[in-house]
Structure formats: C-alpha cells, structure tokens
Amino acid sequence: MARPITPLLWMSFSAGGTIAALLFPIHLFLTGLAFPLGWLDAPSYESLRGLLQHPLTRVYLFVLISLPLFHWAHRFRYILYDGFQLYHLTRSIAALCYGAAAIGAAVAACLLWNVA
Amino acid sequence: MSTDAHYTPYHPKWYRRRVSVWWWLKNRTYAGFVLRELSSVFVAFFAIVLLWEIRAVLEGPEAYAQFTARLQTPLFLALDLVAFLFVLFHAITWFNAAPAAMVVRVRGKRLPDWVVAGSNYVGWFLLSMVIAGILLRG
Amino acid sequence: MSRATSSTVTLEVTRYRPEEETEPTLQTYEVPLEQDWVVLDALNYIKDRQDGSLSYRWSCRMGVCGSCGMMVNGTPKLTCAAFLTDYAPGPIRVEPLQFFPIMRDLIVDVTDFLSKLKSVKPWIIRDTERPLAEGEYRQTPDELDAYQQFSQCINCMLCYAACPVVGLEPDFIGPASIALAQRYNLDSRDEGARERLDILSTHDGIWGCTFVGECTKVCPKHVDPAGAIQQYKLTSGLDSLKSLLLPWGAK
User: Fold this and answer.
1) ipTM score of the complex?
2) How far is B85 from chain A (nearest CA, A)?
C-alpha cells in the first residue's frame, strides 16, 4: 500500500484542479486582462479593501490560492517524473513541489488571517 | 508444476525497445497531454499573482497602485494572456475529463457523459458571472 | 479467386530473427488492395504466398480473441479490424505492440501482462461462500450494469501499447488489469474490494496513472480503462478522507 498520504494528495490535486478550472478563468480575465487594459472598470482600492475584511472573502481567497498550488505541485511533480524521466530525483522533486505549495498556502494564511 | 525449471522474465535475445525522452512528441495526444500538464505552471503563476495582489491591497493604496501599474506593463500583459489561454485549456480539458471520474447514477442508470460535462460548464458560467458581479460592482 | 482490383498496397513489416540478427528491421511486401481486406488478411496473404517465415499471432479474426494486436502506422490496433482501404495508398507500417519485448517478428512477450493481471485477483472473492443449497447468486440488471462495461475486456493489450506510463515505468500494473480489478470490485457478488485496494492503491497501481487517456481511445471493446482508474482513484481518495476525518468509523 502506498503511503496513506498519496490518495489525499490526489484529492487535493483534484480539488485544486476543479477550483482552478471553475474560478481562475474569470479571475485571470478580469485581473490580468480586462482591468489593466481598461476593457472594464476595475474595482476601487476602497472596495477591494472592504471586501478583504469580510471573513468569507478571506476563506474564499485562501482556498482559491492554496488548493490550485497543490494542484500544480502534484501535476508538475508527475510530469518531471514521467515526461523528463527524472526517476532518481523523485524524492527531492516531491519535496520541492509539495513544499513550495505548502509555503504558498502558509503565506496566504498569514496574510489573510488578521485583516483589520 | 516442477520447482526446478523456472522461466525468468529476462531473455537475452528478446529485443527491448528503449523509450526515448522525446516520447511525448511522437503523437498529437501525447503532446496535448504534456501541454495540459504544463498548464498547471500557469495555474501556479496566477495563484502567486493573487497572493501578490492581496499583499499589495493590505499594504495600502500606493502599493496597490504599484501592483496595478505592473500588471499594465507589456511583459505582464503578455504573460497574463498566455496564462489565460493555458488556464482555459486546463478548464476545458478538466470539464471534458470529469465524466470519466464522476459516475453519477440516477435510479440505477448512469448519467450520460454530456450531462456531467455540461453541468460542469453551466456551473463554470454561473460562478464566473457571480465573481464578475462582485468585482464589477465596486 | 479472381481479384476485383489490380491495385496493390505496400506493407512495411517488422522482422526480427534473434538467431540471425541483433536488431529488428523493416521488410517491404506488396499486397493486393482488396476492398474488404484487413491488415490481418494482408499478413496471411504474405505468409501464404510470399514469405512463410513471417511470424505473428492471430485467431478469431473477428475482434473477440484479442490475439492480433499490433502497431499499425504507429497506433495500436487489432489487425483484424484495420481495413487496408483506410490506410490506402499506404505504405502501411506493421510493428509489434509497443512497450513489450519482441520475441520474433511481430510476436511480443506477454508474460509481464499476465502476471500483472493475476496480481489484482480478477475473480470473485467472498468472505464466506454460500452453500450450494441456497442456490445461485442473483443480480438485478442495474447491478450488472454497474460493472458490465469493464467485463468486456478481451486482454488484447492495445491499452498497454498506448499508455506512456507502461513504457516509462516497467512495474506499472497497467490499464486493463486495473479495469478488470474494478470489474470485480463493482460486482455485487464480490467481497474483495478491500483486498484489491491494498494492491492497487500503490505507486505501481492507480497512482502511477496520469490520465493520459490514450488507453480508452485505442480500446476496441470500449471498456474505458482510464475511466475505471479515475473512478478507483476517487474511491480510494474518499476512503482516505473518511478515515482521516472519521477515525472512529468502522472500516
């Protein structure tokens, strides 16, 4: 039996992929293209700051950032393993990928935890 | 069966073809698969952009203005366009793959693939409208 | 036998004679381009009339035995289901199934597949057998429907030839075996799901699969092994989640 964490890593990959699929396109379109290019009016700083105070927004943002990071970690690790045949580095690759995702999630948590 | 003679999987005269590192270029499906997997890099990229945006908002209006200015530079516009296309590619391949993993049975009969995939697309559209509504209000 | 057409098609066929050479080569043959011939017919024509030394496997010639799988122009196909006219004007390249060791010409060694298949215990496992007096195990049409698709597998190994993970990781159990394990897991008469989970929830099992999906594309019986594996991943994942969140729950 694989280490018990393996199915859970796949579940986080799956959840992250679903969130990225459902929510990233609109967020990316607005934040990365429509607002900077002026196609649509960007929200004012005050309204964003106000949105950020709401606990629901903070939970939403935490999930929106962390789970897709784990999605990347899992997929990237496998493509390095299979795509580029880096079998001998599998332990380090896994540690780097999931570690990076965990750091990102931790940073998100720190930022979002206490918002005045 | 006698325990003396046993056939080992290794037979020196059988020809074993080595799999090249470029196996994924042999075939359109394989290449599409690798591209799909690499789309996750752009997913991570945008997650970091979101993190950066939150930090900018928390630091104050000047920091946020710097952030928005950065996003208007040609480099970031190009990166964001490419990321957007890859994220779209991820979403479409994800929703089309969903019926394989999610078997929904209604009264004993399995829901057809297009229903499962279709409901994903509908959910995608509805959620996008909700988010756009929230962000475009203020 | 009169021929309706005088046109021909070229076949480029892998030859490998281990007693004579160290590497496979491609040998060219001209074969009549008959409207209703498949690649297997062409191979039989070659063996009967041109080159009796050509070695290959075949049996039913109608897509149920799974013997005649080969690479046709780089894609795993049952040669009894690959019409020459679909590949005309050719040339048509016929090679042994990918990712298997070549024994001779178009014949590959399948021992590895057979041992992997056996390892997933593809049979009904019961905690206790019902006595004969109680009669047969009965199944409703819906219970049959739950696993029937996965029972259509003819062990032709086209999915193994299509799956890059099979090629990259020699110990990967592979699409057909995992689909067949699911066939028994989902069978209402079976009680061996937990036993199979221990074998399959491993890196060589379901977690080696990256859902390329090529196995399902090439399957001649529409078994959808990729679907079987993803469903199994979800089952295993939910199982792990449940035991994490509800550790006191009975297994």
Assistant:
1) 0.93
2) 9
